[in-house]
What we know:
Blueprint: E1 2-5, E2 37-43, H1 47-61, E3 64-70, H2 72-85, E4 91-94, H3 104-108, E5 134-135, E6 138-139, E7 142-143, E8 145-154, H4 155-161, H5 169-181, E9 185-188, H6 199-210, H7 216-222, H8 231-244, H9 257-265, E10 269-275, H10 279-284, E11 292-295, E12 307-311, E13 314-317, H11 324-334, H12 337-346, E14 350-351, E15 357-360, H13 362-372, E16 376-378, H14 388-401, H15 407-419
Parallel strand pairs: 1-15, 2-3, 2-4, 9-10, 12-16
Antiparallel strand pairs: 4-13, 5-6, 7-13, 8-10, 8-11, 8-12, 8-14
Helix pairs in contact: 1-12, 6-8, 14-15
Amino acid sequence: MNLRTTGIVAGAAAVALALAACTGSEPDEANTDPTDALTIATTSNNQAPMEAVVDAYREETGLDVNVTIADTSQYQSTLRTQLSSGTAPDVFTVWAGGGNPGAIEVLQDAGYLLDLSERDWVSSIDPGTAETMEIDGSTYGLPSKLDAIGTIYNTATLDELGLEVPTTYTELLGYCQDVREQGKVAFALGIQTDWVTQLIPYALTATTVYGQTPEFDQQLADGSATFTGSGWEEAFSKYVEMRDAGCFNDDPLGTDVTASYDLVNSGEAVGVVQVLASYPQLASTAPEGTEFGFFPLPADDSGDVPLPRGIGVSFAVNASAQNQLNAVDFVDWLAGPEATEIWFEAAPGLPALTDAEVELDPVMQAAADVIAEDRTAPMPDQGWPNAKPQAALFVGVQQLFSDQASVEDVLASMDEAFTD
């Protein structure tokens, strides 16, 4: 991967994705005859780059390309329904592994994805994460970006406060207090949006679990480990400790992800713990000239802070695509240099293909530097067998913050979901 540094700001906006009726049927036969159309679906944080590459692809091919966009939660809940009812798009965003409703292992379990193993770009997938796009040795998605979880912060707000980013957990708690004393909050938290609930635990478990035991998910699978009694307990306890230390905005349960971005962009919060994939959406609503930085979230006092890293934006082809030839051609084109340049100019990111050459802004460069130093840990849910543990985590964290559940309750519900 060739990486250069520059400044980029990109944007995205959410629009609705129509809900299809669920029939529970088996996948239909694909249409492998030539057509003049193509349908694509992705999430709102990919809207700007997707629209940019689709405009170029339309001009190049003359195809009638229809793109639908939805926020992540709505997208994931709708996609499986569309696939089962035969109304799914030809190409759509997927996630690596099996830990959420839109993950390849979940979708391919029902035979919904086309095997892409013979495509030329497969050999260029980042070797540290390529296996999370595979099932039984076959590749079912094109990964466009790597992803990681850490703190994206407004550099002007941090400078205004005269503070430095924390590098240990003790410093982190002191940092939260120092920020509060100056009338702001360290981390905007919008857990009204369910998928946001996972981000801080995932960032903390990079140290408390996976940094020391990267094979922990395999231990869960073979029954030699449980969430209860593991480093997950320490991570959740620190999540609560951060809350009690005033690290977050008031009423995170009443704050959605978009409102959390607003807190950062307005200077009311210094930063937000997020996936890199969300950075373009955050930056798109910031005042012109706003600059951002990035740092991993510390969970101990060692000063060695690992970063959860995995496959981010990825695309699969519907095994029942009504425009299959165009779908495969589009995915191949996405992997090429023209689309890569267009995509990463519209939205900053870390390419998942090793032969891609892109320019990195400061946020992505900071994450790339940590990755280059091999200070990484697996993205937890990409090693889980299905979406149930993640769903239990979503509910559990919301209950934890509303004092309806304890850390032990949340972990027990995740253990039960993992073995269900």
